[in-house]
Amino acid sequence: MLRKSRFILTIATRHLMEKRRQTILVIAGVAVGCMVMILTFGLAGGIIADIQNKIIDISPLITIKGEKVNPKQRMLVSVPRDFDGHIEIVSRIVPDELKQVKPYTEIVSLLDSFPGVDAVSPFVMTRGVLRYATLTRPCIVKGVIPEREANIGKLAEKITTGSLNELSYTKNGILLGAGLAAKINVVYHDIVRVTGENGEVYNLVVVGTFASGFGAVDDNNAFVNLRLAQTISGLSENAVTAVGIHTVALSHINNLSKEISDLTGYKTETWEEANANLLSLFERNNNITFFLVIFVFIVAGFGIANVLITIVLQKRRDIAVLKSIGVSIKSVGLVFLSEGMILGIIGAIIGNIAGHYLTILISSLPFSYGPSAVVRGNHIVTVQKVSYYLITMAFAIIVSALSAYGPARRAARLKPVEILRA
Predict the structure, then answer these.
(1) Do residues 204 and 258 share a domain?
(2) Reported confidence tier of residue 400, pLDDT bands at 50, 70, 90
(3) How far apart are CA 403 and CA 394, in angstroms?
(4) Where are the alpha helices (DSSP H) in 249-385?
(5) Into how many domains does the chain fold?
(6) b/e per residue, 326-355, with b = 16+ CB within 10 A?
(7) What is the mean pLDDT of the chain?
(8) pTM (2 d.p.)
(9) Whole domain around residue 295: which residue ranges?
(10) What is the mean pLDDT of residues 122-127?
(11) Would residue 79 count as lying in a domain?
(12) What is the pLDDT of residues 328-372, one digit of tens each?
């Protein structure tokens, strides 16, 4: 068996060496396909990982929303059984209740000692209009307890000017997103005016700016103290719009979310559920890119098939001689199948190595997505995993084998008598 394999590989290698130029070109085609696929894997995985890290750095992993799991049903109109008249409902008689969590202090105390939870931060989300001089900008105001919010994510590390601690002792302080501050041209310790949903105007001191890396957050969000946000929203002191939770580990978030919902009676939402649309958008784009990369392999496969068909046509007499001296049909087919596999394996190895170093090079270069990007950063994030290289290698070998199958079958079917008589 070993001698037979050595015989097949020797002939296959000699055939490829005689066609060096075509062999090198085909190997280069496979290598380029593998390199592009490795780079695509690295970029796609890096984008998703970068988004997830940025979300986790600034958002709670679980959010208790101001909605009851089983809300009480309210009857709008009560009609006697013997009533046979006509009732027309023009508008809602009872207005919608403001979505809120209360008393939030009890829930926070309960969750502070809940297994698997390492940080809890109540907050109030409201909308306002930010004004400085003649410039105005709508914004989303998030009222927090700075000491607790610092434990939810890495907001303190995202501060570009000022500090999160200053927000703690400045009751009328506001921490602006870097993009938002730039749009209204304010700097540290400027006085801005915020008009809340209740129409009242509040004079606030800019205690700093932050840059989360998300354009939508940096251009529209601001942080204030919880009590100030409650006042702007018209909430009582024991009510908030939601409670943010950070967990010890990411692996059991879904189970933990359900347990917290059952315990508190409020609906909960994980960070993945809250950002499902954003994550699915990038995953969809990545899938489209992978399909385009597959065509590179298909082109390389045609190159393999072309080289092997040429070899079969030029080596018809050699094939006839091999068959006439007793080499089996199966062995002849394996010779050309081996040639395709050799081209694929060598190309895959070179492509994987080149893809590895190209991915490292790209991730090390300074790069800006621009001020209008959804996700911002100063370099391209890439991810490299062993599975990426194994998948690429397997795909290259499969394409090479399929491309070699046709020429191998054609060589095996040649009749030596007809060829030697010609």
Answers:
(1) yes
(2) confident
(3) 14
(4) 253-264, 271-274, 276-314, 316-324, 329-364
(5) 2
(6) ebeeebbbbbbbbbbbbbbbbbbbbbbebb
(7) 83
(8) 0.71
(9) 2-56+278-421
(10) 93
(11) no
(12) 778 878 887 888 888 889 999 999 999 999 999 998 888 766 666
